[in-house]
């Protein structure tokens, strides 16, 4: 019985080391995660922008309205749950981002995200642009 407990303890330690290798080690090399996205109004007028983000299973993970003054910027951080989801190496991290202005002009983009990828959403001349930035 003592031999079985010893083997289980060694197995548990090996699993912790493996989890640390895939989850903690990248943070040591890459640094802290980046923000989820930033929104910028590059126009001279106020805009209301609706941001919707869904995962690869069409499950909504974020939906928020932003009322932006001219040249105003807003930034959103990744939630702890989203960071954990993105950290697993075998998970699908494909997301669809839909941004809609108050006049129903919208754009949709599919991107692959990880803890070090950030989105930049900008409104310029009543057009919406979505870029993904990798650190």
Characterize the structure shown:
This protein has 135 residues and is of the alpha+beta class. It has 2 domains: 1-31; 37-134, Immunoglobulin-like. Helix content is 27%, strand content 43%. It has helices spanning 2-30, 80-87, and strands at 37-41, 47-55, 60-68, 73-76, 94-101, 106-112, 117-124, 127-134. The strands form 2 sheets. The protein has a 4-stranded mixed sheet, with no helix packed on it. A 4-stranded antiparallel sheet has the order 3-2-5-6, with no helix packed on it. A hairpin with a 4-residue loop joins β2 and β3. The longest helix has 29 residues, at 2-30.
What does the secondary structure layout of this molecule look like, with pairings?
Layout lengths: L1 H29 L6 E5 L5 E9 L4 E9 L4 E4 L3 H8 L6 E8 L4 E7 L4 E8 L2 E8 L1
Parallel strand pairs: 1-7
Antiparallel strand pairs: 1-4, 2-3, 2-5, 5-6, 7-8
Q: Report the major sheet.
A: 4 strands, mixed
Order of helices and strands: HEEEEHEEEE
Helix percentage range: 25-40%
Terminal CA distance: 50 Å
**Low-confidence parts lasting 5 or more residues at pLDDT below 50?**
none
CATH classification class of the largest domain: Mainly Beta
Anisotropy-based shape: elongated
Q: How do the strands of the widest beta sheet line up side by side? A: 4-1-7-8
- Count all strands and give the number: 8
What is the residue-mean pLDDT, rounded to a whole number?
86
Please tally the helical runs, counting DSSP H or I stretches of 4 or more residues. 2
How many domain modules?
Answer: 2
CATH topology of the largest domain: Immunoglobulin-like
**How big a fraction of the residues is strand?**
35-45%
Pairing-aware structural class of the strands and helices? alpha+beta
CA-based gyration radius: 20 Å
């Amino acid at each position: 019985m003592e031999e079985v407990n010893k083997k289980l303890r060694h197995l548990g330690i090996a699993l912790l080391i493996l989890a640390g290798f895939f989850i903690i080690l990248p943070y040591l090399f890459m640094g802290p995660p980046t923000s989820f996205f930033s929104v910028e109004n590059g126009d001279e007028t106020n805009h209301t922008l609706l941001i919707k983000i869904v995962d690869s299973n069409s499950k909504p993970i974020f939906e928020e309205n932003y009322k932006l003054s001219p040249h105003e910027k807003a930034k959103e951080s990744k939630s702890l749950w989203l960071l954990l989801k993105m950290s697993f190496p075998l998970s699908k991290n494909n997301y669809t981002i839909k941004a809609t202005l108050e006049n129903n002009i919208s754009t949709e983009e599919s991107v692959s995200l990880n803890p070090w990828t950030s989105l930049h959403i900008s409104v310029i001349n009543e057009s919406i642009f979505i870029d993904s930035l990798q650190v």
